[in-house]
Amino acid sequence: MAQAAQDTTPTLTDEPLIAALRVLLGERLSTARAVREHHGKDASYHAMEMPDAVAFAETTEEVSAIVKLCAQYKRPVIAFGTGTSLEGQVQATQGGVCIDLSGMRAILEVNEADLDCRVQAGVTRKTLNTHLRDTGLFFPIDPGADASLGGMAATSASGTNAVRYGTMRENVMGLTVVLADGRVIRTGGRARKSSAGYDLTRLFVGSEGTLGVITEVQLRLYGIPEAITAAVCSFDTLAGAVDTVILTIQSGIPVARIELLDELQVKAINDYAKLDYPVKPTLFFEFHGTEAGAREQAELVGEIAKDYGGTNFNWATHQEDRSKLWQARHDAYFANLALKPGSQGWATDVCVPISRLAECILETRKDIDETGVLAPIVGHVGDGNFHLTFLIDPDDPEEMARAEGVNERMVMRALAMGGTCTGEHGVGTGKMRFLQAEHGEALAVMRQLKLALDPDNIMNPGKILTI
Amino acid sequence: MAQAAQDTTPTLTDEPLIAALRVLLGERLSTARAVREHHGKDASYHAMEMPDAVAFAETTEEVSAIVKLCAQYKRPVIAFGTGTSLEGQVQATQGGVCIDLSGMRAILEVNEADLDCRVQAGVTRKTLNTHLRDTGLFFPIDPGADASLGGMAATSASGTNAVRYGTMRENVMGLTVVLADGRVIRTGGRARKSSAGYDLTRLFVGSEGTLGVITEVQLRLYGIPEAITAAVCSFDTLAGAVDTVILTIQSGIPVARIELLDELQVKAINDYAKLDYPVKPTLFFEFHGTEAGAREQAELVGEIAKDYGGTNFNWATHQEDRSKLWQARHDAYFANLALKPGSQGWATDVCVPISRLAECILETRKDIDETGVLAPIVGHVGDGNFHLTFLIDPDDPEEMARAEGVNERMVMRALAMGGTCTGEHGVGTGKMRFLQAEHGEALAVMRQLKLALDPDNIMNPGKILTI
Questions:
Q1: What is the distance in angstroms between the Cα of B329 and the nearest Cα belonging to chain A?
Q2: Domain holding A239: CATH number?
Q3: Which residues of A touch B453 (CB under 8 A)?
Q4: pLDDT per position as a tens digit, A228-263
Q5: What proportion of chain B, given as a percentage, has pLDDT over 90?
Q6: Is residue B218 part of a domain?
Q7: Is some CB atom of chain A closer than 8 A to the CB atom of B455?
Q8: What domain range is B123 assigned to?
Q9: Fewest beta carbons less than 10 Å away: which of A230, A306, B55, B76?
């Protein structure tokens, strides 16, 4: 009983704020510990840090009212979609109010002729694609998780088919954003291009809730290709696989996906999904186009792969075969966990110019093996982006330290090669310490912009940069 | 003699600044009236407003030193590339120092394997493409003029083939920027994607020198397609032409260019270039791909066009035929001037969702005709972007007022349709008065960002927004 009372009592300093929020939201404000804990952790290894309260908002106006109250009390505001971020983006590092946007799930408009739509922030990508099914259109960005589109915009998500369709940065046309003082703005619009002033849309995309709360997203859509085919190819060497990717991209072949799996990753999915791919560096491809176009792409890539020692170029035109292949890729995370039962996965990513990719991956693989941690590698290699999944016990500080060492050396290696400390997972709390090395004086400019829009630092404080 | 002395004497208030700049730059600082006049006007109808001095910079460090001096004296800084902007972006509305970057013409690196390059801001797009000739790569953005790449980044230029390759926004990977206090930052990088903090690159792209001076640009490059073909098709109705475009885009056919010319524009180029295109709404297409792919695209588009009343679908595979066709398109401006000898051209553009394009063009055409001005229409219609060229006498206030009325009504029409007041010409001084209507409260946010980065409003003041 005492425990239950304690569980639902917010910290004393927030009491007037929480009382005001309760007037606004009634039952849609929760201070229950289980709810707060659920909202204080994402899908990563980062520790749970719970907010003082969780506000379940249903409209932009409501988000504005919540933020105004938080601004009045100078307390943190953390936006929450599906909690599938990977660098601690939803941790309430200083308590405050988490705004859960999952109730904002209206698909506001679909403009079929213009290939665009507008959704509330809580709509997930799969929900949108289900809704679009009869239109012949789809939204291609696929970060793996069935994330909310607001969250995907906030973290500049991308995933397997960014090589063809771009990232959220290229596919968000406009936003509705609630600013730190509760003002509501609309950025961008429905025109395919505009040079009418500063590109506020791109400023908020990837700002991880530190500049405002995204409540609506205008998105580009694409016609579902007439034909979709897939292929798998094994290589004796990682260099052969990466050179195949480089020449494919250079040749302008519009592949929709090129995923690299290292030997350990292939072994993991073979074991997990009872498959029998050769345990070698392997590329998974997907081709979108007309029947003839998709076939031509596959044939061209098959020839390039052969030149670089690719074997068993296996071309899957049937939906069933393709599904099996991509299911295996999507299962990679769980397959990895099964490599070391009881472990937790810590996913990290970097992105480098593609000419440095083989070198970066090989050096990282060597470092992993020498350091004695377990970490399969997969990559969205068409973009030069690759991921490690450390299989670790977060309660083993010595193992964590070894993984942190590998991660840090990988980031510094990527930066030295002209790359970035994160291609798609974002900064959150996990990559903050690398931004000075990556951006130099430009980080000070980011800080100036943050202070201009959020002088009291209430919007997701402690993420991306410190004030 | 008195006249000559007056010509080179700067305004009194700037004397100490100019003396300091002369110490820095020697002969590369000019206060000659002819030089100042040349730098006070772009390629548009906007009036010449000359700076007090023109500084010919050769390095980023020199730009930084110039800006520091201007900051010290709180005097305007206006960046100048080739002077081919179209909305008065280079006008020195409050005097100050124009920094001419045309001497910064080093191509700093070309990374063939990574399809990227880094150039100084003064390198023009044609110079870059000439330099790339032997690499099999090219930079696709083509705004018509042989503009500097720094200027193209600053104005978020695009042009005929943005429908396939995007605008500068999608093709600038990173920038070197001199800020209002003289600090030098590098934004972005060579990774194909990054979610490492705020997207400063996109903030500076399209900021028209109001947030900083761009001195270096990192750009995406593309493999020259194996095959390039072109086609021309006439339509009885504008709606038929636009519906052809909509279905082409919806079908995901990756056309490289789709240009619409209205009847008056076709007449103008026929007269000018002694051509005999049917005087009807006409589409010019270009297709990039493999031999088979480009042919397939042309065939698919040909079928769509036929369904919408297109006739004489004329497919040009030979370089010579293609060059003739695109030369005609590029000559449109001069062809227009010849429609009304002695006139000056005033180019303006808007961009709307493609489903509204026919309606927007037809209403605008009707307004032009009813208002009694002469203005052919061309459009980068794959993007929903179209241009008017008013053929006017700037010294005839009554004619100017009529043209301004048409322009204003066209902009408000575009905004009402979910469009933007400028798709690619930018804001400069010409479109400023429409930004409040387009952006609402978001304009106040642009102003906050401007003040955060340029509190004394010295960077190209009087452009995009007032402080």
A1: 21
A2: 3.30.70.2190
A3: 445, 448-449
A4: 999 999 999 998 998 999 899 888 899 999 999 999
A5: 87
A6: yes
A7: no
A8: 107-223
A9: A306
- Per-residue pLDDT tens digits for A11-35: 556 789 999 999 999 999 999 999 9
My answer on whether A127 and A39 are in the same domain is: no
Whether B254 and chain A come into contact, CB under 8 Å, resolves to: yes
For residues A213 and A111, membership in a common domain is answered with yes
Task: For residue B130, give every residue at least 6 positions away whose Cβ sits within 8 Å of its Cβ, in sequence order, or none.
Answer: none
- Please indicate if any CB of chain A lies within 8 Å of the CB of B199: yes
Residue of A nearest to B463 (CA): A197
Residue A13 is predicted with a pLDDT of: 60
The number of distinct structural domains making up chain B is 4
Q: In terms of domains, do A264 and A284 share one? A: yes
Q: How far apart are CA B113 and CA B249, in angstroms?
A: 30
Amino acid identity of residue B218, one-letter, is Q
Q: Nearest to residue A47, comparing CAs of A396, A450, A380, A429?
A: A429
* Band of pLDDT at residue A328, cut at 50, 70 and 90: confident
Asked, for residue A234, whether it belongs to a domain, the answer is yes
CATH value at residue A112? 3.30.465.10
Kindly report the CATH number assigned to the domain that includes residue A378. 3.30.70.2740
Judgement on whether residues A148 and A216 belong to the same structural domain of the protein? yes
Quick one: pLDDT at residue B444? 98
Contact B385/A192, CB-based, under 8 Å?
yes
Question: Residue B2 — pLDDT band, cuts 50, 70, 90?
Answer: very low
Residues A316 and A242 placed together within one structural domain of the fold: yes
CB pairs under 8 A between A and B: 281
Q: How far is CA B92 from CA A27, B79, B209, B459, B460, in A?
A: 59, 10, 12, 11, 8
pLDDT at A11: 56
Strand A116-120 versus strand A107-111 pairing type: antiparallel
Mean pLDDT of A433-442: 98
Q: Is residue B435 part of a domain?
A: no
Query: Around Cβ A366, how many Cβ atoms within 10 Å?
Result: 10
Position A322 confidence tier, pLDDT thresholds 50, 70, 90: confident
Which of B36, B65, B100 is the last residue in one of the domains? B100
The predicted-structure confidence for A106-146, as pLDDT tens digits, reads as follows 999 999 999 999 999 999 999 999 999 999 999 999 999 99
What DSSP character marks residue B225? P
A116 strand-pairing partners: A111, A220
Mean per-residue pLDDT of chain B:
94
B421 touches chain A (CB under 8 A): yes
pLDDT at A318: 79
For residue B77, the domain's CATH number is 3.30.43.10
Nearest CB to B354; choose among A113, A427, A439: A113
- Whether B374 is in a domain gets the answer yes
Range list of H helices, A101-159: 125-132, 149-154
Residues of B in contact with A169 (CB under 8 A): 193, 199, 202
Alpha-carbon distance of A421 to B197, in angstroms, equals 10
Radius of gyration over every alpha carbon of chain A, rounded to an integer in angstroms: 23
Q: Are residues B132 and B175 in the same domain?
A: yes
Verify that A278 and A385 share a domain, yes or no.
no
Mean pLDDT of chain A: 94
- Domain endpoint, select from A332, A354, A382: A332
The structure tokens listed for A391 are 């299989």
Q: Inter-chain contact A426–B195, Cβ cutoff 8 Å?
A: yes
- What are the chain B neighbours of A292 within 8 Å (beta carbons)? 292, 296
User: Distance between CA atoms of B467 and B459, rounded to whole angstroms?
Assistant: 12
Task: Based on the fold, state whether residues A150 and A219 are members of the same structural domain.
Answer: yes
